Automatic annotation (TrEMBL):
Transmembrane segments: none annotated. Residues 1-20, 111-124 have a biased composition (Basic and acidic residues). InterPro entries: DUF4316. Residues 17-47 form the DUF4316 domain. This is DUF4316 domain-containing protein.
Amino acid sequence: MNREQEIKKQAEGQDGKENHLGAAELSAEQNMNMIDGIPNNEKPRVNQNYVILENEIVGEKEFVLAKNPAAPLPYVTWERNMLNDEQKGGENFYWGKYFCSHEAARKNLHERADGEREDLRESRPSLLRNLRQNQEGIARPAAPAGGREKQEASL
């Protein structure tokens, strides 16, 4: 039995029933060398020898959490303005905040993303808020042109 047949047999499962995760991986992988239990392997994203583990995209910004086990502070969160990538010639991460623990870095990642969401909410009024303001403007009667001046002139 060759390697490909062994892998397909493993995907079927131990009791002869189909293993859905194994079948999904077999259909998604580009070649049989990539069968390892993780569907559709891609090269990890790396910045300054830190492997990016998580990301959140908010508007035009991306916030990432990355890890480098060899670094004194192995976890970092960075911000990236995706609009600047073309100018910089690739992903340009900045404003790194470094941590000893994964939990602290993960908390910071979410706080940074939530802060950007709040900034966007304040700087860009929601569509509903715009509609309400427009309705209020329509509901107010317009003042007659030069109304006060005409009244004073007639006195």
